[in-house]
Amino acid sequence: MEAIWLYTPLSLLSLIVAFMFFSRTRTRGDLPPSPSALPVIGHLHLMKEPLHRTLHSLSQKHGSIFSLWLGIRLVVVVSSPSAVEECFTKNDVVLANRPAFISGKYIGYNYTSLAGAPYGDHWRNLRRLCALEIFSSNRLNMFLSIRREEIKLFLHRLYQNGSSDFAKIELKSKLSELTFNILMRMIAGKRYFGGNVADCEEAKQFRELISEIFEYSGASNPGDFLPILRWIDYQNYEKNLERLSKKMDSFFQGLIDEHRRGKGRNSMIDHLLSLQKSQPEYYTDQIIKGLVMVMILAGTDTSAVTIEWAMSLLLNHPEVLKKARIELDTHVGQNRLIDESDISKLHYLQSIILETFRLCPAAPLLVPHMASNDCRIGGYDIPRDTILLVQCMGHSQGP
User: Fold this and answer.
1) How many Cβ atoms are within 10 Å of 326's Cβ, its own excluded?
2) What is the structure's pLDDT at 215?
3) CA 182, CA 199: separation in Å to the nearest integer?
4) 362 Cα distance to chain centroid
5) What domains appear along the chain, each with residue ranges and CATH number?
6) Residues 328-374: pLDDT tens digits?
7) pTM listed for this prediction
8) Which SUPFAM superfamilies does the record match to this protein (predicted)?
9) Is residue 213 within 8 Å of residue 196, measured between CB atoms?
């Protein structure tokens, strides 16, 4: 009996190694160059944080297109502008899918959200919905007063914190709170950070929930690359995701039910519920919750990080800050705050924003794509089911 228990894991490991060897041999082709790999884990041991800097370092050694084996998954990393253009013009449909990571099953409502849905009619409908009903100019202009009010509250808090002589102010968390309050007031008519919070307990639940969602949605799970780790539920990852999924679904469903009872305001949820009345078979509660989740994940941290980088760059380049202030004084004056309608006249400020995007992209790596069929990029073979990672930082800072 002891011998059986000894040989079973060894046999299982041998089968895994053999499977990986033969699967890699079958898909070898003319793959992009790759560093030396270890048995079973491939290049997983090279993946150090921050990941985008690790991949940038590898691209310096192996070129602007290189491949990695992360467990059983083939990953191709692209960083040159010409290769990126080839990915999203010539191969745009082939590379339109997303990898089916475990987090997408639980946080992405079983791969039905815009961020994780496979390319097809459902994904196109979601994209059309976002473009026409959620992020259109008319829809966003309806929430202009919310953005104005939250910015005034933000500046007032900064003034209070720094009014007594010189004071050190930590901007990162405050910018994050600003973007969360703006977005959640647009989505649900509620603010969950700072003062004027209507329901402190609900706000606390939201903050804890969002912290967990960002933790699990941004983490790389080894079980996505080594199936045996998913089979044993390594570090209870999937169990924790399932628990988080239920908690998230309950919170978002509560918001929807509250607005359905007429207790909400003129928010995005209200608008989506009005669409649900016309097409209840498509605009289900699950679709609405998935859209809310995507808006939170995509629209909060990215905005706060970009503003933080812009402030840092301006403080480190005082001559640029001086020119920006002169432009603001000329076109806006010193008697009022800048308004969104002023942006079109502030060309130097627009250049500062674009340069911030170039130097410090909020997402140094694009959301992963996956090849639905064999294709070629930069003269290399890209087999079906290959994961594609696109580096923004590498080519955006090139000559």
Assistant:
1) 11
2) 87
3) 17
4) 9
5) 2-99+376-396 (no CATH), 127-299 (1.10.630.10), 303-359 (no CATH)
6) 999 999 999 999 999 999 999 999 999 999 999 888 899 999 999 99
7) 0.87
8) Cytochrome P450 (SSF48264)
9) no
